[in-house]
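User: I'm putting together notes for a lab meeting next week and I want to include a structural view of one of the chains we've been expressing. I don't have a solved structure, so I'd like a prediction I can at least talk through. The sequence is below, exactly as it appears in our construct file.
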Amino acid sequence: MSRVILSTAMVGNEFVMPQPRLSIAVTKPATSLTSIPVQAVSTQEFIPVITPNDPARRAPLAQLIDILHRYSLATFALLFLLVGSTGVQVGGNYWSARTLGKSKPVVNLKTTAHSIVGLNLSVPSDQLQAKLETITSQPASLTVGDQTAPISPSTIKSWLQITPDAKGSKQYIHIKADSISKSLAELANKYVRGPVDQVSVTHDGSSAIVVAGINGTKLSDPGTLVNQAAGVAKTVMDAKGLQFTTPLESVPFQAITPAAFNKLIEVNVVAKQMYLYDNGQLTRSYPISAGAAQTPTPIGEYHIYSKLSVQDMKGFNPNGTKYLQPHVRWINYFLPGGYAVHGNYWRPLNFFGAVNSSHGCVSLPEDQAKWVYDWAPLGTTVITHR
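Assistant: Thanks for the context. Below is the predicted structure for the 386-residue chain, given as structure tokens.
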């Protein structure tokens, strides 16, 4: 027999409509050609036809599911291995972190490390005041040259800085080495003095010293105190006493004349005369009235620090009564406390050069006082002497 297969019919552009498969048996008549063998074909044998349900046309996801279904045991084993290995890794990390966490010290980022030996001291908060009292009340002194000065507890306290820990249960006492050297320098400088130059003047061919020369002093080696401060910073909190020392060096005075000054006012309170110098040249001289015996004019070298064209002056007389002098003009203050060179309108002219009658000021007639006021700027040197 032979078979006849009908092909599928196309519908539209995309879909294939299945057609029934037909198998038609055809009976061939007997032939007399016995030389041609005839092979028997089973009526159960069909030629396969591709249909829409064929695996070749199934979606990839469906194929993947089919494969997983066929190899479900292998798939389960693979997933078990993946999940198990991941769990082992996560668990290992967790227990490792816990183990390391137990072995590491707890770090508080707010707590400052105090590792400088000798410069920091940790004390319980309730003992802080007692410890500070011990540190600040220890004996301490500074010797400058041949003079010794005590160092006060408040000065020592200024060398300390208090910092609480994060919990407030402890207090850290820090030493500020820079503060030690600074306060020592300030204390030592009280014994440092510039020299006072000797000033000589000449009148009518006769020379006289109107300002006595005095030698000055200076620190021989300022770095000495800096080094001592750095060393003592490590032992301040031992409270065993502190002692600093620095040598002084003499600075000699110079002998000068009015030529050393741009402008100079010289006042002889005994001769009751004023001399005015421009770069050493005597410009003018005026008779004056200086301080009375009970209210003398201070003696020394000063400088004009304030100028007023007019002012009401008031104060106390030697007997304690008050006085008021209005409208005093052409005032040049040279010493705090009310000491000035100024005009005087209430005394007769015969007082000037003859009688010292003021409360310590140097006065002269107003027209002469006006000239001095205009001539002498702030900073002009005033020398009063006997």
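A couple of points you could mention at the meeting. Residues 72-103 form the longest helix (32 residues). Helices lie at 60-70, 72-103, 128-136, 153-157, 177-188, 223-232, 366-375.

User: Perfect, that's what I needed.
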